UniProtKB/TrEMBL annotation:
Entries under InterPro entries matching the protein: 6PGD_dom2 (IPR013328), 6PGDH_NADP-bd (IPR006115), HIBADH-related (IPR015815), HIBADH-related_NP60_sf (IPR051265), NAD(P)-bd_dom_sf (IPR036291), RedAm-like_C (IPR048666)
Family recorded in the similarity comment: Belongs to the HIBADH-related family.
Record keywords, A-Z: Oxidoreductase
Protein name: NAD(P)-binding domain-containing protein
One Pfam family of this chain: NAD_binding_2
Organism: Streptomyces kurssanovii
């Protein structure tokens, strides 16, 4: 129990789906756990599993001797929950999804109140928490010493990757990966729309091919990063932009033939076309990054 455990005590504010999964992982790892949730019923069920329940956020903070983890809906709920509470000397770890700009503001806000601050961006869904084999992890940024001090606590529920002392960088990594995922889902949606009308097409088999192909293509991120770093966008090019852009005609014609709206693809195809028109057909995709940034 709380008095005999040698593990760092954890305080957790927020017991939604993710907070509850984190709570269970810390309890399973033997960390004494104090929880608070706006709707008390969610805390009560964890009390039955060994957590101590605080009646208010202020009470939870007052008794906290270890890290105080926030896992709330959004940054506004973090502000509301901590409003007026003495944060002097507290170690705050904010796992609430945020933008980079708001994470930096929240870090400054916490430090002005005498707290240490680490921001986190969770790259996992609740069923992945407490199951290292699923490959989930959290990006952390901000106070490096705080990350090191609480590394054991942070690594108990899922992986932990520190990505820099700029408090906005965890959110930036999180949102950048989610943005890439959104583009990938757009492509997958288009692909399924193309094959949908075909009666004698093995959908499960197609899904497997799609997953395999996306995995094989994912390695191009390294080629692109190397080109952006060196400034030579022709470096190591395996498929050049002129060829890819010309190939887009077949993609568009097939979309039309299969009665699929091409608008998930056309904005990116337009960037490729513009870069080729500027005389950069021998490059890889890196030049489209410049166009996207208006450079
Ligand atoms: N669930 C997921 O798949 C994703 C995975 C990636 C990371 N996200 C982020 O994690 C944060 C928490 O997400 P969650 O899944 O736990 O979210 P909910 O189940 O909706 O729970 C929300 C909790 O926030 C509390 N809350 C909401 N508004 C307020 C407020 N004004 N003051 C105090 N607490 C508030 C809510 O309380 P209650 O409704 O139970 O009273 C829940 O505890 C989130 O940033 C995701 O983006 C999850």
């Amino acid at each position: 129990d709380d008095h005999t455990s040698s593990k760092t005590p954890v305080t957790l504010l927020g017991l939604g789906d993710m907070g509850t999964a984190l709570a269970r992982a810390w309890l399973a790892a033997g960390h004494p756990l104090t929880v608070w949730n706006r709707t008390p019923a969610k805390a009560e069920r964890l009390a039955a599993e060994g957590a101590r329940v605080a009646a208010t956020p202020a009470e939870a903070l007052a008794s906290a001797t270890g890290p105080v983890v926030l896992c709330l809906l959004d940054d506004a709920s973090v502000g509301k929950t901590l409003d007026g509470i003495d944060l002097t000397g507290k170690d705050l770890i904010d796992l609430t999804t945020n933008t980079p700009a708001r994470s930096r503001l929240r870090a400054a806000w916490a430090e002005e109140r005498g707290a240490r601050f680490l921001d986190g961006g969770i790259m996992a869904v609740p069923p992945m928490i407490g199951r290292p084999e699923t490959g989930g992890y959290v990006f952390y940024s901000g106070d490096r010493a705080l990350f090191e001090r609480h590394r054991e606590v942070l690594e108990a529920p899922t992986g932990a990757k520190f990505v820099g002392e700029d408090a906005g960088h965890a959110a930036l990594h999180d949102i950048a990966l989610l943005s890439a995922m959104t583009g990938m889902f757009a492509g997958v949606t288009h692909a399924f729309a193309l094959v949908r009308p075909e009666k004698d097409l093995d959908r499960a088999g197609f899904a497997a091919l799609l997953a395999e192909w996306l995995g094989a293509m994912a390695g191009m991120t390294h080629e692109m990063a190397a080109q952006l770093e060196s400034g030579d966008y022709t470096e190591g090019v395996t498929s050049n932009l002129a060829m890819m852009s010309a190939g887009n005609d077949a993609l568009l014609a097939t979309a039309e033939g299969q009665s699929v709206d091409p608008r998930l693809l056309t904005p990116f195809m337009e960037l490729m076309r513009r870069r080729v028109a500027q005389g950069h057909g021998d490059e890889g995709l890196a030049g489209t990054v410049d166009l996207l940034r208006g450079e």
